[in-house]
Structure to design on (179 residues):
């Protein structure tokens, strides 16, 4: 039953998340925080504890949209963007993700809460869904992956998953930020 609930949540979230994965993808509609009168969407989480690392392209409209929206919702300083086209180190790190988890598109978003990786999204995501995703990852004691190949949970109690999570955490923090 727990797996079914997680699968349904992840399927709902994936409909909002896919970005520059193929040329016939469309952008999802997203409200701005000013159109929201309450902060119920935060699910009781502290928005100042969120940080996002994005591997993307300066020419990708989905990457640019996420670069704009995440700071609007979570505050200035909540985002680190790594350009992969003009920086060889960032491109190599992106290839590491590609080899490990099979990502094929950008933006590649690492969602951290209180310094800990809770989700990886390939593509766009509505910022209002991020706290729900983090809460679900916390509840299931793992990292949620929503990538073009499918939706997965990497559990914190599995040795191979923990090794992968540790590598990806390091990669998200190792890039060279856009200047």
């Amino acid at each position: 039953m727990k797996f079914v609930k997680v699968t349904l949540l992840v399927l709902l979230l994936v409909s909002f998340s896919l970005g520059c994965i193929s040329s016939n993808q469309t952008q999802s509609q997203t409200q701005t925080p000013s159109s929201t009168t309450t902060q119920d969407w935060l699910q009781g989480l502290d928005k100042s504890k969120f940080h996002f690392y994005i591997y993307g392209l300066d020419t990708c409209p989905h990457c640019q949209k996420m670069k704009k929206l995440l700071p609007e919702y979570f505050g200035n300083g909540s985002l680190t963007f790594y350009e992969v086209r003009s920086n060889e180190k960032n491109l190599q790190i992106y290839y590491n993700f590609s080899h490990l988890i099979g990502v094929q598109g950008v933006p590649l978003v690492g969602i951290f809460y209180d310094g800990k990786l809770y989700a990886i999204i390939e593509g766009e995501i509505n910022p209002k869904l991020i706290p729900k995703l983090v809460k679900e990852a916390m509840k299931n004691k793992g990292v949620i992956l929503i990538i073009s190949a499918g939706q997965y949970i990497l559990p914190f109690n599995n040795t191979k998953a923990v090794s992968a999570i540790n590598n990806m955490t390091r990669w998200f923090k190792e890039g060279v930020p856009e200047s």
The chain has five helices and six strands. The chain has a mean pLDDT of 85. The first helix runs from residue 2 to 17. The longest strand covers residues 50-56.
